[in-house]
Specification:
nine-stranded mixed beta sheet, Aminopeptidase, 412 residues, alpha/beta, Glucose Oxidase, domain 1, eight-stranded mixed beta sheet, binds zinc ion
């Protein structure tokens, strides 16, 4: 009897393990978000370290490669702040990443600069120009409220730069880092910059790297019946990297969550050989501006017209409120199929459709006529985004989401 129970237990356990492996997914996420991966950006080659891990896991899973080592190399120009990054408000040091972020289009700068607090009465860019011209204060840092957020990162004709005040810990972006301008822009948490502050002390260097060498990582499982047609799973493995030599952005939600799920799917499909071939592609350069996916869409590893469906996963670690399917409104039949599967199995509270949005790596493929959707999970249980504290995504509905995705691929 004991033996039978043991056998039964093993069988259940085995089925469970083969279905998905949350423990594996969490371990991969944890690793990718550790300090030694430097936020998977372009300081200290964080991207290359993450690519190496992905390729190692592809190999372990038994994926075939389109290239010898799964890599598709390419390059782009990128600005970086690899050294110390010091910002002080009237002598009080602010913490990089927590209290402030620097626009990646900023040049290096060193010195002390008076602050020019723009009064609340100034509401339009025209009024701002008039204010600076008549005030005679042209040599400092403008301090602007959210009314002027559209100016962030742009070239301004006065002084050395500007500060945009945020209500909370600011979000960092690197999508404007492919060139260096003349103006230094900072976002500062307004609670860290009292209105009485008179001057700001700045000291940091930038390093602009031309033709930074990076890579996409791609592998596949051969289909049982239709080998030349592909289901494609994509995600970006890069994140924002480091801002200065201390602040690193772990990117647990964005997008170690999608990366780890792709690796889990790769393991699943090697042990559940599908009808069609399944490709798994992990891009770099997403945060810089969909660089990896654009490159691959322009230099495909197999004909794009052989893609039956492309599913892009970006920020999939929550789910208490369900998922959103970008392009769900475009590909309505597919979307209805997802809803039907979800209704039958009660996987997620809601499967919601959205129209087109060029907000992740599905976009360059969709633009070339590929049937491509982008799925992200929703839930207020974890709201970290582009922050130094995005380090611990909860994977609330991971098992159910995995079930929905694999059921969907089996139904095609
Ligand atoms: Zn992002």
């Amino acid at each position: 009897m004991k033996r039978i129970i043991f056998l039964l237990f093993s069988l259940v356990f085995l089925t469970f393990v083969q279905a998905q492996d949350l423990q594996y997914v969490k371990a991969i996420n944890h690793k990718l978000c550790s300090k030694s991966y430097h936020g998977r950006g372009y300081v200290k080659h964080g991207d290359a370290l993450a690519a190496k891990l992905v390729a190692k896991e592809f190999k372990k899973a038994g994926l075939k490669g389109f290239t010898e080592n799964y890599y598709q190399p390419y390059d782009f120009d990128i600005n970086t702040f690899p050294g110390k990054i010091i910002v002080k408000a009237d002598g009080v040091r602010l913490i990089a990443g927590k209290d402030f972020v620097v626009s990646l289009s900023s040049p290096g700068l060193s010195g002390e600069f008076p602050l020019i607090w723009v009064p609340d009465s100034i509401a339009t860019p025209e009024q701002l120009v008039a204010f600076v011209e008549t005030s005679g204060k042209k040599d400092g840092f403008l301090v602007l409220t959210q009314k002027f957020k559209k100016l962030y990162g742009t070239e301004i004709p006065w002084g050395r730069g500007a500060i945009l005040l945020e209500d909370k810990q600011p979000w960092w972006h690197v999508s404007n880092g492919r060139h260096v301008g003349h103006s230094v822009w900072l976002k500062i948490n307004k609670h860290k910059l009292p209105k009485t502050t008179q001057s700001i002390q700045i000291d940091f260097d930038n390093r602009f790297i031309e033709h930074y060498q990076t890579q996409n990582v791609a592998g596949y499982v051969e289909g049982m019946a239709v080998k030349d047609t592909f289901l494609v799973f994509t995600a970006h493995y890069d994140h924002l990297g480091m801002m200065g030599n201390k602040a690193f952005f772990p990117g647990s939600s964005d997008n170690a969550s999608g990366t780890s799920m792709i690796l889990d799917l790769a393991r699943y499909f090697t042990s559940h050989p599908p009808k069609y071939s399944v490709a798994f592609i992990l891009f770099s350069g997403e945060e810089v501006g969909l660089m990896g996916s654009s490159y691959l869409a322009d230099h495909p590893l197999f004909p794009l017209n052989k893609i039956k469906l492309l599913i892009n996963l970006d920020m999939i670690g929550t789910g208490s409120e369900g998922i959103t399917v970008v392009n769900g409104k475009v590909f309505n039949n597919l979307f209805q199929k997802m809803v039907a599967i979800n209704d039958e199995h009660h996987y997620l509270p809601e499967v919601k459709a959205r129209g087109e949005a060029c907000n992740s790596d599905h976009c360059p493929f969709y633009k070339k006529g590929v049937k491509a959707i982008f799925i992200y999970t929703r839930g207020k249980e974890y709201l970290e985004y582009h922050s130094v504290t995005d380090s611990h995504v909860p994977y609330t509905k991971y098992k159910n989401f995995f079930g929905l995705i694999t059921d969907l691929t089996e139904s095609l």
